[in-house]
Design brief:
elongated, four-stranded parallel β-sheet, 21% strand, 13 strands, alpha/beta, seven-stranded mixed β-sheet, 309 residues
Length: 309
C-alpha cells in the first residue's frame, strides 16, 4: 500500500485546464493510519473534477516537511493539506502559508496555535476528548472499576497522544473508576515494534497488570504480540487501542483485542479535501472540523468490518 501511495507522488485527477485546482499534501509519515488518511484524501480527490493533488511524505523529518511546504508555495499551489507530527510546528507552517496567502488545512494533528489561525486556515481532526475517554470507560467497565493498568503512549509531542493520555487520567479519577491504578506508562511512538519491546521489558521485570491501554492500535497489536510470545492468555488481560485499523479488527476477531475506537481516516481525508476546496473558492470554513469517534467492541464488531482502514 505504501508503495502505491508513494508512486502517486504527483497525482492529477480529472485534469481540466480551465478549472484546475492544485492542492499540495504533506504527510509527516506513512504509518498504517496515516497511509489510510492519505488514501482518504486521494479517494475523495478523485470525485472532484479538475483537482490535482501533489503528495509528499516527510518521513518524520520536521525540517523536510517545512521544505515541502516551501516548495508547494514556490509552485503556487492553491491550497495545502498538512499532516504534521509535531503540533508545535504550527506557528511556523501557519506563517509560511499566511505570508503566501495560501489556504492551509491541518489534518489529524491539532497545531499548537489553533486559537490564532487566520480565517483561511482550519483543522480537520477528531475530538480527542472522546477517544481516550471512550476507550478507558470501556476498559473500566470490563474490569468492573478495579485493576492495574499499563499505558502505551504515542509521540510525546503529538497533540493526540497527550490528549488521549490525559483522557485516561481523567476517567480513572472518576468515582466509578477510582479503583483503577496506572502502574507503568511509557511512550512507544505509535509503533508496534516499540510497543512490543516495551511490553517485553515490563514482562521481564515482572510488572503485573490487568489491562493495556494504548494510544493507538499499532501499539496495542505490538503489545499483544509480546504478551502471546511470553505465553500470556489474552483472556486474562484487557487490551484497548484507537483507530480500528484492519490489524486491530483482525485481532479483535481472534479474541486478542477487547476495545478500539474508530477514527475515520476516510472521513478526515474527505473533510480535509472539501475544506481546502471551499477555502480556495473563498468560502468560510469553521476553524475546527471534528469527525466523530466510534466505540468498537466484539459485540458490534461485525458492523465495522467493512469500515476497516
Amino acid at each position: 500500500m505504501r508503495k502505491t501511495i508513494l508512486a502517486a507522488f504527483v497525482m492529477a485527477i480529472s485534469a481540466s485546464t480551465a478549472s484546475a485546482q492544485t492542492i499540495g499534501v504533506s504527510m509527516s509519515d506513512l504509518d498504517k493510519f496515516r497511509t489510510a488518511l492519505l488514501n482518504g484524501i486521494l479517494s475523495h480527490g478523485k470525485t472532484i473534477s479538475g483537482l490535482k493533488l501533489v503528495v509528499q511524505n516527510a518521513k518524520s523529518d520536521n525540517e523536510l516537511q517545512k521544505k515541502q511546504v516551501q516548495q508547494f508555495i514556490a509552485d503556487k499551489v492553491d491550497a495545502i493539506i498538512l499532516g504534521v507530527s509535531d503540533g508545535d510546528l504550527g506557528p511556523q507552517m501557519t506563517k509560511l502559508a499566511a505570508d503566501a496567502h495560501i489556504p492551509l488545512v491541518y489534518i489529524n494533528n491539532v497545531p499548537s496555535n489553533l486559537s490564532d489561525l487566520p480565517e483561511n486556515q482550519v483543522v480537520v481532526a477528531s475530538d480527542e476528548a472522546e477517544s481516550g475517554t471512550m476507550q478507558t470507560k470501556e476498559v473500566c467497565s470490563l474490569l468492573k472499576g478495579k485493576g492495574r493498568l499499563v499505558v502505551l503512549m504515542g509521540e510525546p509531542f503529538h497533540a493526540a497522544a497527550r490528549a488521549r493520555t490525559q483522557d485516561i487520567d481523567n476517567v480513572i479519577a472518576t468515582p466509578e473508576c477510582k479503583g483503577l491504578q496506572i502502574v507503568e506508562r511509557q511512550a512507544a511512538y505509535w509503533s508496534s515494534d516499540y510497543a512490543d519491546q516495551q511490553m517485553q521489558e515490563w514482562l521481564s521485570a515482572g510488572v503485573k497488570f490487568d489491562a493495556v491501554i494504548a494510544n493507538n492500535d499499532e501499539m496495542a497489536v505490538g503489545a499483544i504480540r509480546a504478551m502471546k510470545r511470553n505465553g500470556m492468555s489474552m483472556k486474562d488481560v484487557v487490551v484497548a487501542g484507537v483507530d480500528a485499523t484492519d490489524d486491530a479488527l483482525a485481532a479483535m476477531q481472534a479474541g486478542d483485542l477487547d476495545v478500539t475506537i474508530l477514527q475515520s481516516a476516510v472521513g478526515q481525508g474527505a473533510t480535509s479535501v472539501d475544506a481546502a476546496v471551499k477555502l480556495i473558492n473563498g468560502q468560510k470554513v469553521p476553524r475546527e472540523n471534528n469527525v466523530p469517534f466510534e466505540l468498537v467492541t466484539p459485540q458490534n464488531l461485525a458492523q465495522y468490518l467493512p469500515k476497516t482502514q
